[in-house]
Amino acid sequence: MAATVWEETLRMIHRRNLLIATAFAALLGIGNSAYAQQDPIRVGVLVGTSGASGQIGNWTNRGVEIAIEELNEAAGFQRFSMFSEDSEYKAQKGLEGFNKLTNVDGIDVLITSGSAVLPTIAPLADQRELVMMNVGAQSPAMAGIGKFTFSVIQLADFDIAVMANYAFDTLDFQRGAALYISNDIGQTNVVEFERQFTQLGGEMVAIESFRASDTNYGPQVAKIAAAQPDFVYLVGDVDVAAAATRQIKALMPNVQILTYGGMESQLFLDAAGAAAEGLLYTQTDFDPSSDDPAIAAVAQRYQTRYGEDFTSPFIGYAYDAMMVVAAALDAAGETGEPLRAAIMDRRDFPGITGDVVFRDDGTVSKSVIIKGVRDGAFVLVDRVGASE
């Protein structure tokens, strides 16, 4: 009987202490963070991790992983957890992955990419009041695509303007051609490039397209070669762009190929082989080997975790996106509309790929550089100014 009375007394003390602690936490406004130790913020990552562009998707996953690792260490508990799905950068697969992450995994925020994927899921994110961070889709159509969508990477219209100016002013090219994949992304990019290049005084002497399923670009390349351009502006997924690069160089060994940052992948180098030599492309002005303390710390964490050097800006975009979410959560206290409002209220966040300063349409400005392939490696070629 004595033991029973003693146990009941302990239970009463425990209940009283729990009530006092709960009331004190509520008084200080720390209830949410206390519960966060038991219920982490669920971060979804929806990117293509298989197929020709899978390396970019895997870099994205790793960028989020090391950011979460750092944030959880700083908090002293598991503040964030991560759930990832493979979109293959395709609209239908992206929709399936979005439904899995939201309906099954119950994510609180989404980090994603893919210019074919975002138009499908952005309206759904708005309906759910789910903040989405775009870390790779650069189509100009991403501007204002959703109230809850924010891009930490600059969109392609500025990159295209930089490349058109570089071709005309620096390389002194007058006659251009384009070969592009016949989808919305390819068409949008080529239309914008033609507009920018012709405004400068250049001429687009040939513009040809191909289907994603094509493997032979001979007829298109022959028409381009007959027009005798100074360069070919190439738009396509990594695998088809690599095949097109080989066929362009086989018929026009001295022509300059210009493209964009999505080609910065070992998969592209391996598939294009020697034909990639001399290719030029735009990329965010970001040096992962910098001795800047913030970049160096992330690079060291990445090398420690994965046993590889930190080489890609796509790792940095994902890391920055996660850090923006965490900083905004500190102010908002919860996800959904409060998180979106906190991002827009602050707007300006530090980032290892450059400051993340959001415009009203959820897009950002970043400095852009010209990079190229030299001796089978991606190297810096020239620097240009920041976007406005």
From TrEMBL:
It comes from the Bacteria. Belongs to the leucine-binding protein family. Keywords: Amino-acid transport, Signal, Transport. This is Leucine-binding protein domain-containing protein. GO terms for biological process: amino acid transport. The keyword Transport applies. The keyword Coiled coil does not apply.
